[in-house]
Design brief:
With about 300 residues, the chain is α/β, with parallel strands linked by helices. The protein has helices spanning about 45-50, 75-80, 95-105, 110-120, 135-150, 165-180, 195, 215-225, 235-240, 260-275, 290-300, and strands spanning about 5-15, 20-25, 25-30, 35, 60-65, 65-70, 80-85, 155-160, 185-190, 200-205, 210-215, 230, 250, 255, 280-285. The chain has two domains: about 5-220, P-loop containing nucleotide triphosphate hydrolases (Rossmann fold, 3-Layer(aba) Sandwich), CATH 3.40.50.300; about 225-285, Alpha-Beta Plaits, CATH 3.30.70. Helix 4 (about 110-120) runs antiparallel to helix 5. The chain starts with a strand and ends with a helix. The mean pLDDT is about 90.
Length: about 300
């Protein structure tokens, strides 16, 4: 087993002159929950469809489980992948059980595989109901059960919490954690960071078709540079000394300086001390993961 279950190399998809995905190098570690994040229209769904061979890339390639996704390997590789893209599948006039029996016959599965999938999504007590009477969350779980029935090594979910209420979102998070605990690598996309922050072990952030960050949550926070806040005497005069740093005075009467790394922060402090300003405190502005995400997706990356 390779350390990464999915790798893309310079993956690009163009429609005419418009690049929907551009030079994307994606790495999904085996056994992870990979949070694929970005605003609506960033290229997430297109990337997932290319990975599933539903769309052909303009250039670049995809490797899954150590093998390239090609016409020759497509059938075999898809046998190890489950997916839920866009609307959940299922025939509304049939019961959940009848829908699962159709999947069983189409894929040539045994009853144990179907039972595993239904229990994994905790839908076993709802299988005699017609799908038209399911809540949206139940329909999503049925779609995931269909994807899980072949017991895939990789599960790809595109915006699985769309339309769910807070209880349904938490239920989906718990499901993803259980699946990862059972050894399934999960790739889940969202345009809302808060939905999968508590679930994902690795994050990939896409903006305008380009990967602008890929790594763990702690790496994302470490890579960002929130504003440095300096408490000092005569802050307005201090800002005048720091004109090249785009500093300003906050409502609390402190000096805020944006985008400094540790070395630059030390330089600002030295400059103020050299001009005889009394400094009583230096800290970084508190920043949430959502703040970092919004900064990245609006500004094009770290």
């Amino acid at each position: 087993m390779t350390s990464t279950i999915v790798e893309t190399s310079n993956l690009t998809k163009r429609y005419g002159k418009r690049a929907v995905v551009e030079n994307l190098n994606l790495r999904i570690p085996t056994g992870s929950v990979y949070g694929f994040l970005g605003p609506n229209g960033a290229g997430k769904s297109t990337t997932m469809k290319i990975m599933l061979s539903l769309i052909q890339p303009t250039s670049g390639d995809v490797q899954i489980m150590g093998r390239p996704m090609t016409r020759g390997t497509r059938r075999e590789l898809l046998g190890g992948i489950g997916s839920l893209i866009e609307a959940p599948p299922g025939y509304a006039h049939l019961t959940g059980a009848e829908n699962m029996r159709l999947v069983q016959r189409m894929l040539g599965l045994n009853r144990q595989q179907v039972d595993y999938a239904v229990h994994a999504v905790r839908l076993q007590d709802q299988m005699d109901k017609k799908v038209r009477n399911y809540s949206l969350g139940m329909k999503q779980r049925l779609g995931i059960a269909m994807a899980l029935a072949r017991q895939p090594k990789l599960l790809i979910l595109d915006e699985p919490t769309n339309g769910l209420d807070p209880a349904g979102i938490e239920e989906m998070r718990a499901l993803l954690r259980r699946l990862a605990g059972d050894g399934v690598t999960v790739m889940v996309s969202s345009h809302l960071l808060g939905e999968i922050d508590k679930t994902a072990t690795v994050l990939g952030i896409l903006s305008n078709g380009r990967m602008i960050f890929q790594g763990t949550r702690s790496e994302l926070m470490a890579a960002s540079h929130p504003d440095v806040i300096v408490t000092c005497t005569n802050p307005h005069a201090a800002v005048g000394t720091l004109t090249s740093f785009n500093a300003w005075v906050t409502e609390e009467g402190e000096v805020a300086v944006p985008g400094l790394d540790e070395r630059q922060t030390a330089g600002v402090v030295a400059a103020l001390v050299g001009e005889s300003f009394g400094i009583t405190g230096v800290r970084r502005e508190e920043q949430t993961l959502e703040d970092v995400f919004m900064t990245l997706t609006a500004g094009g990356g770290l």
